[in-house]
Write a structure and sequence with these properties.
alpha+beta, Gyrase A, domain 2, five-stranded antiparallel beta sheet, 3 helices
Length: about 110
């Protein structure tokens, strides 16, 4: 068994131990989904504590270190995406409201005097 940062390689599988304070369950599930074509992802643990992710490659000659590092990349990718989406939420809402308001105003103007 070889242990690295937040994962270990054992018996042809990659096992992650992820603190829920570092990545939410949504982020972990999104990263696992992104790997569906390359590996089976089994999730277990406590969403409020430690979450375990078992990656079982679909191809027997998969480079497990590379698989693990790329899974970590996906965790960071989705964490950044969600954080940016939350930061931009108010801006997105304002743009949508403005767009909808302008459409509604145009429709109302067409009906004025009818």
């Amino acid at each position: 068994m070889e242990h690295k940062a937040n994962y270990e390689i054992n018996d042809g599988r990659v096992i992650f131990s992820i603190k829920s304070g570092l990545y939410s369950l949504d982020i972990i599930q999104a990263a696992a989904y992104a790997f569906m074509d390359r590996a089976h992802a089994l999730l277990d643990g406590d969403p409020q504590g430690m979450i375990l992710v078992l990656l079982i490659p679909k191809v027997s000659d998969e480079d497990l270190d590379k698989l693990a590092l790329e899974f970590n990349d996906e965790l960071n990718n989705y964490a950044f995406f969600i954080r940016q989406s939350q930061r931009n939420k108010e801006i997105k809402e304002a743009i949508i409201k403005t767009a909808l308001f302008s459409i509604t105003d145009k429709d109302q103007l067409k009906n004025v005097g009818k």
